[in-house]
Amino acid sequence: MDDLDILSRYPVSRHRLSVADYHRLAEAGILGEDDRVELLEGQLIAMAPVGPRHALAVDALTDLLSHALTPPARLRVQNPMTLNCDTEPQPDIAVVRRPWRGYPREHPGPGDIFLLVEVADSTLAFDKGAKRILYARAGIPEYWLVDLTEDVVHIHRNPVGDTCTVEDKLGPAATLTVEALPGLAIEGGLLFT
Questions:
Q1: pLDDT for 56-81, tens place per residue?
Q2: CA end-to-end span of the chain, whole Å?
Q3: Strand, helix or coil at 52?
């Protein structure tokens, strides 16, 4: 049992970070580019190391989407998205409006995002649970979870509260489309080779 589990049993005050606090930690050199953390609901969360199969899937998605995207969409790979004042995840892939509002002073926010994608093996439960809920709460219109444990893609669309009204599970033979970008289609099987 780690210390966080012990502390969660007691009613102690916790200090939550805002996105501005998080950025100040980086500006002060406390957090560096090599620190694999993201800010979720005011807490610094360690990101898992990227394994070879995970990297291969991200590379495949990057290649497929970069060739399929047309304006007004732009591809971002493993870069921050600011969902609200205390949440700034770093999804594996984001398809955002080009240029997003706030450029170049801010990361894209929910109104700028067409699609977020997480690739998961060891982080599957977290990405299926916490990340899916955070993305739905932020109103992200579409979230794909590339599940490397089963070679399927979980599609989540049309967020309402903590969930999505459309949820689907597509196998490698499926063609993946982005609802907000008609005409964009990629072959799912190419993600799992």
A1: 999 999 999 999 998 889 999 999 99
A2: 37
A3: helix
Distance CA 101, CA 95 (A): 14
Inter-residue contact 190 to 60 (CB < 8 Å)? yes
Query: Cα(99)–Cα(73) distance, rounded to whole angstroms?
Result: 9
Mean pLDDT of the chain: 91
Domains along the chain?
48-191 (3.90.1570.10)
Q: Which residue has the tokens 């620190």?
A: 35
Q: Which amino acid, one-letter code, is at 144?
A: W
Q: Is 144 helix (H, G, I), strand (E, B) or coil?
A: strand
Q: Going by C-beta distance under 8 Å and a sequence separation of 6 or more, which residues neighbour residue 122?
A: 48, 51
The structure's pTM equals 0.91
Contact 85, 113 (CB under 8 A): no
Element (H, E) at 115: strand 113-120
